[in-house]
Amino acid sequence: MATAKKAGAAKKGGGSAAKKSSAKSAAKKGGSAAKKTSKSSRSSGASAKRGAGGSASKRGAGGQGRANAAFMKAMQPSQELAAVIGDRPMPRTEVTKRLWDYIKKNDLQDAKNRRQINADDRLRPIFGGRRNVTMFELTKLVNQHLREP
Question: Which of 6, 69, 119, 133 has a C-alpha 20 to 30 A away from that of 81?
């Protein structure tokens, strides 16, 4: 009977030694116990599966992904907006780019508050008659002057 207890203790001891070694390897990896390691491996596997079909895989090493089709659709600017950016249809991204080029070229950003854009005679009709708008309101106001060709 004593030998059976010793054999059982040896098994238990052998099992605890294996647990200790796995705990040491888990500690080296950054986990504190074997249980935590197994949980983290399960959760990382699930997140890896989610990441495979998610937006992380769409972006390349440079962080560039596929553009949204709605942004790339060519839109016809109104006459007021065409006076600033040109009259041919272009995507919203190009409209924003050209508008910012115009703002920077004519030094229309407020000197003290760079988020504020001061309107000149060409921009005032686009801004709804306002003398200045914030850069966050800019897209909303410009979208009112775009339509499908």
Answer: 69
Both tokens of 114, joined, read: 């760079």
pLDDT tens digits along 84-94: 999 999 999 99
81: Cα separation from own chain's centroid: 29
Amino acid sitting at position 51? G
Specify whether the CB–CB gap between 89 and 145 falls below 8 A.
no
Its pTM stands at 0.55
For residue 91, the tally of other CB atoms under 10 A from its CB is 17
Give pLDDT tens digits for 27-54: 555 554 445 444 544 544 444 445 444 4
CATH superfamily for domain 70-147: SWIB/MDM2 domain (1.10.245.10)
CA dist., res. 118 & res. 69, Å (int): 31
